[in-house]
Design goal:
The protein is mostly beta strands. It is built from 3 helices and 13 strands. The strands form 3 sheets. It has a 7-stranded mixed β-barrel with strand order 1-8-7-11-10-9-13. The radius of gyration is 16 Å and the shape is globular.
Length: 191
Amino acid sequence: MPVLIDSGYTATITWLGVSPGQASLRAAPQDALELGFHGISGARHEGENRPSCVRVKNLYPKGTEIRNVRQLSILSREEMDAIAQQIGLEALDPGLLGANIILSGIPDFTHIPPSSRLQAANGATLTIDMENRPCILPGREIEQDHAGHGTAFKDAAKGRRGVTAWVERPGALKIGDALTLFIPDQRAWAP
């Protein structure tokens, strides 16, 4: 019996991007991404390992070298549209959010189970770490382009900010590719 089962959902990649460095969260749109075990070459969150940050401050002193399970930021087009509506914009530019991949077609995307896989037809596979909790950085980027709207982002994005992921099997992705969602075959934790 497989440990990861086909969820029956397939998403379509509608946008790809790369945040090129530490100075800004903004991601530049791309037609395709070449993913290695390190993530995306030259990207903000590139690397097989990374220094620990505020997200794991209860586990490690800041700067401790840990495995990089935050190589990619993946969001849902449907959830982004809901955020845009709530903050009073017609649409939300994924580049302002530092997104790498925008998908369409998986409901309640931000809450897919950790350790789920997104797999392309060519075998490229991404492993979901967990929900990417909203922070103030995207709000600052939105505010620069749409004054009066960025400050509402953090609250509007709760439960809709997408997930972080890492590359389990390298390969290329391009806009229009389909990714199949595989989920862990286990019951919910019930202590």
